[in-house]
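thought: fold this chain, then report.
action: predict
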Amino acid sequence: MEKHFNVMNDLAIIILNYNSFNDTSREVDSLLEQGFPEKSIYVVDNDSKDRAEIEQLGFSKNIHTVLSNYNGGYAYGNNLAIKKALGDGKNYFLLLNPDIEISVAVIKKLYSDLQEFPELGMIGPRICYRDERNKIFSDGGLLFPEKGFMGDHINYEKYKENVNTSYYNYNINYVDGSALMFRKEILNDVGFMNEAFFMYYEESEWCLRLLAKTNWKIAVNTQQEAYNLFTQRSSFYQYYMTRNRIWLCRLYNGNTKYVTNERWTLARRALKKGKFSMAKAYIKGIFDGIYTNLELKMTDEKSKKH
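observation:
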């Protein structure tokens, strides 16, 4: 098979695994079948139950594996792999969730975008649904600090034929972390992702840090597509979304009162419906968001020194 990567040998593709071996191995096989070189693929395992299978996958496919003895969440795992790839001389990095389906052609175009536009620190593709490929999940993310950093996806749930967008969408607040490509130089300016967030909003906070530097831009190339799977919003999800929105408010002067009122309302509704674990997630997220004594800004500074 023709290799497409003679001009992309400084690109690392990073896939974070946590009890998702089937999706991870599918994604690795897809990349290899499309001609992607083995030693440009990095799979990091966050101390999951299928760690042994991931280790074997690395041996059998001759790809890099990073095996953590600790589950530190999305930012922690990806940061480990980024540091490994930096040590291997990589200059560009593509973070992929295991459920993402993406083609070599799309990867190549995103890479060439970073080459063509030196002011671009991060770029992502349009993300559509794997089971309904004409429906958009995201053309880039928006954040609303006046609403407690409520997030939204541009063109969410719209069909492609019903939207008219520019080729590059720069009017976004973050690139979705399920398929995010960035260049090495941003690490010198803003450091790594903040590991305190564990799950959700870590890529949002990273993008906000980057956009605070006037020399960098982020964008989504709406003509390039990747595909994800819809996941149910569990109590695990709601806890971290609640806590981390409040943390973002603390860091960036968002409306903490808005998000706490919204989440208290959701907690009361969950209690009335007998959904006690969901109610507990909202309430615990509120209290941990407000009262946990985390020096988040210092965490950011420490991340630059890794």
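thought: worth noting. The first strand starts at residue 11 and ends at 17.
final: tokens above.
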